[in-house]
Every structure is written in C-alpha cells, then in structure tokens.
Design goal:
Elements lengths: L5 H9 L22 H7 L10 H4 L6 H4 L18 E2 L8 E7 L9 E3 L2 E5 L4 E6 L9 E6 L9 E3 L2 E5 L4 E6 L5 E6 L11 E3 L2 E5 L4 E6 L5 E6 L9 E3 L2 E5 L4 E6 L5 E6 L9 E3 L2 E5 L5 E5 L4 E6 L13 E2 L3 E5 L4 E6 L5 E6 L9 E3 L2 E5 L4 E6 L5 E6 L9 E3 L2 E5 L4 E6 L6
Parallel strand pairs: 1-27
Antiparallel strand pairs: 2-33, 3-4, 4-5, 5-6, 7-8, 8-9, 9-10, 11-12, 12-13, 13-14, 15-16, 16-17, 17-18, 19-20, 20-21, 21-22, 23-24, 24-25, 25-26, 27-28, 28-29, 29-30, 31-32, 32-33
Length: about 425
C-alpha cells in the first residue's frame, strides 16, 4: 500500500526523473527562492520523519559528540535528541546481511533499537518487536501490536516505553517488553502525525499536521503544553540546551522553551520545510523545499549560509547528518551531498538513480544512506566515493538505525533488513 499522496506526487515528478552515472563535483552554493505552501503540499510525500542512550537519558545532551556516543541503542528517529544522525564507529567495507523480516506492508518509519530489540512500524498499523542479534535469517518476532491507523511516525523508546504517532492523529504509548497498550492521546482534529517523537527529561515532543507541536508526559500521556504554528508540522523536533527546534511548513524556524512551551525566537527560513533540523551548540542545519540546505546560528537569529546545487533544483525531504566538518544531505535531485559545515560550499556529490528521501547516517569515516532506487549506499565521508552498495526488494524511504554493530532499515516492499556491520570480527 502506498500513502494517499503518492500517486499524485509520482505523476508530478515522473517527468522530472532522469538517470546519470556516478560522479563527484566541487560546486559553490547559491541562493534560490522558496516554494509557496500550496506547491509544497503537492510535492510532499508521506514518509516518516525517528531503552534510551546516555546522551538523552537525562534530557538534553551537551553537544554533538554526545549524540554520536556509542551506546547499544538508536532510541529515536535520528539517533538522539540533537538529531545529528551520527555514530562514532566505522563499519567494515562489506557488511553482511544478518536477517530480513517481512512486515507484510510498506515500512516508511525508521526503526528504534534498544536493549537488543528492534521496534518496527508499518503503514498497516502494525508495530513489532524483533530480536536484534537473532541467528534466524527470517528474523525473530517477540511481540506484535496493531492500531487502527497507519504508522509513518518513527517510534521512539524511553524508560521501557515505546511511543509513536499514527495517521488518525493519536499518540500511543506501549510497554516495550510486551507491546501492551499504556495510553493514547488524541491530537486536534484527527490530522495525521508524520513527525517522530523526541524526548526531554520526562516529556515527549511531537508535531502534527493539525499545526501544533505537542509536549506530553511520558508516563501518563497528559498534555503539558502545545504550541500552534502556521502550518502542518512534518519535522521531528530537535532538542538542545532546554530548547526545542521546529522547522515547519510555514517557512519559520521556531525556538521553544521545553519546560514552559513559550516561543523564545523565530527565524524566517524563506522556504517551507519537511526535513528535521540537526543541532550542535548554537548551530542548526536543515534542508528546505526551496532546494536549499541552510546553516543557522539559532542563538544569534541569523542564517550563516545557504547551499544550493548550481543546476539541480529539487527539494530536500531527508534530514541531514551532521559531522564535525561536513553536513551530509540526500535530495530529491537523486544526489547525496557533502557540504562544508563552516562555509556551506560543496565538497562532493554522489549520484544515485532515484530521489533520496532516506536520511543519511555518518558512521565514523563512512556515510550510510538508502535511496528510492532500492539501494543502500556506503560512501567515504571525506570524498563521497562509493565503498559498498546493497540492492533491496523495494525503495528505501526509512533511514538507517545503528546499534550494537548492526544496521537496521525497512523498505516499501515491507522487508526490514538487518546488517552485521563488522562480519569479519565474528
């Protein structure tokens, strides 16, 4: 089953697709005007935006290094509260396929991993817990829970509870050990939730297509506060230094105090966004539907730079991965981009055969990313050179999740793949 906007979007974009061989270029950035909101709605496809690791266990992590700390978990959509999409360990050049599990329907949500378990969700409303290190090549299911609506919101796990949103506008909490429902919270008007949860202390934050950002108590599901934005909230909120960051369909970056729900700053981005922001210190990075990646100083309230490919003008739907020197982004231009974090200049690009809506992950000196061309790519972080590729059974819109030396990612055929990232060490 495809999401309800997919046929429309496919028809609009079909004539724009073309194939090119792999290449690497060094290009400078340029500015480009943003798309209006009604155009954004036509382009927007419905893919998801994300135990706990030590970086998020006590709330907001102190910096990027904490977000990339090695823990045996991938608790939220982008791996941590900063949404940097980073892990320290470099995988072997030839990962081995450990197992596949058939969900039976499209998987757009990125899995969560904690305590040796993988938590996967599908557009048919199924949520399953799988054994991460199983020797069964077909995967081993521990429990299954089903809700009435589809799920494209990536699940998040904290303190033994699993949280996710659904297409009917409900936020769910289930027991991570058993799958037993604990509570549900109904958002305004039944609008779908494509945003993925993030955590700050005892609270979870999640956006909705009703235009609100919600803060709920993890234990009870009680509403703590909500903030109305000017348009649907597709992104997952980043969290740092007691603040949460939402880049929305209204073209604004909002900085909100996590404890009070008070908006402390707005910054005009100039374009609508669906991608989730990544934060490190006072710096924030996000892709837009105006074909740009923007570097922002959120404390100073100014845009540091705007990157745009000199030729290919396509939206950025995937969220960036944030390394120490490079920002890595996948685009609907079929490219994976390596961008100098300090200057916003292009360092390299890598050509895939279809749009890239899977958000990349930086793993040591490598980049891992899926594509709608049915491939998972491993690239050299410094150069963008291809190291390894795996062709799957369907398109990859979900993003990689890394924990305990494994990479797990679902595709639109319903298969969830688990790879051993260091098979030679076994």
């Amino acid at each position: 089953m495809r999401s309800k906007f997919q046929p429309l979007i496919h028809g609009i974009s079909k004539g724009l697709k073309y194939n090119m061989s792999s290449f690497h270029t060094n290009k400078s950035a340029s500015l480009f005007a943003g798309l209006p909101l009604f155009t954004f709605a036509l382009f927007l496809s419905l893919s998801p935006m994300q135990g706990q690791d030590k970086a998020t266990e006590k709330g907001e992590p102190p910096g990027l290094q904490a977000a990339g700390s090695e823990s045996g978990s991938w608790p939220v959509f982008r791996g941590g509260a900063l949404q940097a999409g980073v892990r320290k360990a470099t995988p072997a050049d030839k990962p081995g396929l450990a197992w596949t599990f058939d969900m039976g329907d499209v998987v757009e949500a990125t899995v969560a991993i904690s305590g040796g378990r993988v938590y996967a969700a599908g557009v048919d409303g199924r949520v399953v817990a799988l054994e991460l290190m199983t020797g069964d090549r077909k995967g081993k299911k521990i429990w299954e829970h089903k809700v009435k609506a589809g799920i494209r919101s990536s699940p998040g796990i904290r303190n033994g509870r699993l949280f996710f949103g659904d297409d009917f506008g409900f936020v769910h909490a289930v027991d991570a050990s058993t799958g037993k429902p604990l509570w549900t919270y109904e958002t305004e008007g039944g609008a779908e939730i494509l945003s993925s949860v993030n955590f700050s202390g005892p609270s979870l934050l999640v956006g909705s297509y009703d235009g609100f950002l919600y803060c709920l108590d993890c234990k009870t599901g009680k509403l703590l506060w909500k903030v109305e934005t000017g348009a649907p909230v597709h992104c997952s909120p980043a969290i740092s230094e007691g603040k949460t960051f939402v880049a929305g369909c209204d073209g604004l970056l909002r900085v909100i105090d996590v404890k009070t729900g008070k908006e402390v700053r707005q910054l005009e981005l100039g374009e609508n966004t669906a991608a989730s922001p990544a934060v490190d210190g006072n710096q924030l990075y996000v892709g837009t539907y105006g074909s740009q990646i923007k570097g922002v100083d959120w404390k100073a309230g100014k845009i540091l730079w705007s990157y745009q490919h000199p030729v290919r003008r396509f939206p950025y739907y995937a969220s960036v991965a944030l390394g120490e020197k490079l920002v890595v982004a996948g685009g609907r231009d079929k490219l994976i981009h390596g961008i100098d974090r300090a200057t916003g200049k292009s360092v390299w690009t890598f050509q895939t055969r279809s749009r890239v809506e899977s958000s990349p992950v930086i793993a040591g000196s490598r980049v891992l990313c899926g594509s709608s061309d049915k491939n998972i790519y491993m690239l050299e972080l410094a150069t963008g050179k291809k190291v390894w590729t795996f062709e799957g059974d369907g398109s990859f819109v979900a993003s990689p999740a890394l924990a305990d030396g494994r990479m797990v990612i679902g595709c639109d055929s319903g298969l969830v793949y688990c790879f051993d990232l260091n098979p030679a060490k076994k």
